């Protein structure tokens, strides 16, 4: 974790198995991983390598068969279901490939709703939603419903929703999977800026080599194990706009 201040999330000998007997699948086979404050980490690997399973366990959505997941030093295995849900709601932001915005709500309402459901007053939730939309350069579209937004704009609203809870960690599952190349570039540049300028910690699963190359750190999986863990210095050149996109 060179250059980072603290460990945000850590796994220790993490395993995950599905099924039993002849149909036993070992999705994770003993994964040790540390991710520090202010890192943009891409997780890549072939289908079935364990990357999506890992993301679900990091977010407390699924539980491991054995091993530990620590979020800001808190062992998720020692928490009750309710306590784990509360930690997930308040300390981990999620971004999905399909955006998951409510179609009848405006961008601002989509961002503020999770806060209000968690007991934050409407006034404070609105203020935090406006700030998050400003961070992702969507203030001018805050009154629009999702159907009036492009795919890239919807994903930026989804990122704002994740940021509004002021999370320790943002987990993104194929965040550019439904976007064209130009929208992909804008979303990845936004994630880079949120890490470099705002100090956020972001972990994303992607199948896109260009997106993976834009991360500061690339962790590759194969057969439930970490195959590589590479840090990059220059991640900007990979996202240059192609001439035909101008």
Polypeptide structure, described:
- Residues 240-246 have low confidence and may be disordered.
- The strands form two sheets. This protein has a six-stranded mixed sheet with strand order 6-7-8-3-9-10, with helices on both faces. A four-stranded antiparallel sheet has the order 2-1-4-5, covered by helices on one side.
- The chain contains seven helices and ten strands.
- Helix 3 packs across helix 4 and helix 3 (107-117) packs parallel to helix 5.
- It is α/β, with parallel strands linked by helices.
- The longest helix is centred in the C-terminal third of the chain and has 16 residues, at 181-196.
Strand content: 25-35%
| Class inferred from helices and paired strands | alpha/beta
Strand order of the largest sheet: 6-7-8-3-9-10
**Major sheet characteristics:** 6 strands, mixed
Number of strands: 10
Number of continuous helical runs: 7
- Cα-atom Rg, whole angstroms? 18 Å
Order of helices and strands: EEEHEEHEHHHEHEHEE
Which word captures the global form? globular
């Amino acid at each position: 974790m060179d250059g980072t201040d603290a460990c945000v999330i850590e796994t220790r000998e993490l395993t995950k198995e599905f099924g039993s007997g002849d149909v036993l699948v070992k999705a994770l086979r003993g994964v040790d991983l540390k991710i520090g404050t202010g890192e943009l980490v891409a997780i890549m690997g072939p289908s079935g390598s364990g990357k999506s399973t890992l993301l679900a366990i990091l977010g407390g959505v699924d539980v491991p068969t054995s091993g530990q997941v620590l979020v800001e030093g808190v062992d998720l295995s020692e928490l009750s279901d309710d306590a784990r849900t509360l930690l997930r709601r308040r300390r981990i932001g999620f971004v999905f490939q399909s955006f998951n915005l409510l179609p009848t709500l405006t961008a601002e309402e989509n961002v503020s709703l999770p806060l209000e459901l968690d007991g934050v007053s409407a006034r404070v939730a609105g203020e935090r939603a406006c700030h998050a939309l400003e961070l992702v350069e969507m203030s001018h579209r805050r009154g629009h419903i999702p159907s009036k937004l492009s795919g890239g704009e919807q994903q930026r609203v989804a990122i704002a929703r994740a940021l509004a809870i002021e999370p320790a960690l943002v987990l993104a599952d194929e965040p550019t999977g439904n976007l064209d190349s130009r929208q992909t570039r804008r979303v990845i540049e936004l994630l880079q800026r949120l890490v470099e300028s705002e100090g956020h910690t972001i972990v994303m699963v992607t199948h896109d080599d260009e997106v993976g190359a834009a991360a500061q750190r690339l962790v590759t999986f194969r057969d439930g194990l970490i195959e590589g863990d590479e840090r990059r210095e220059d991640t900007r050149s990979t996202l240059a706009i192609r001439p035909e996109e101008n």
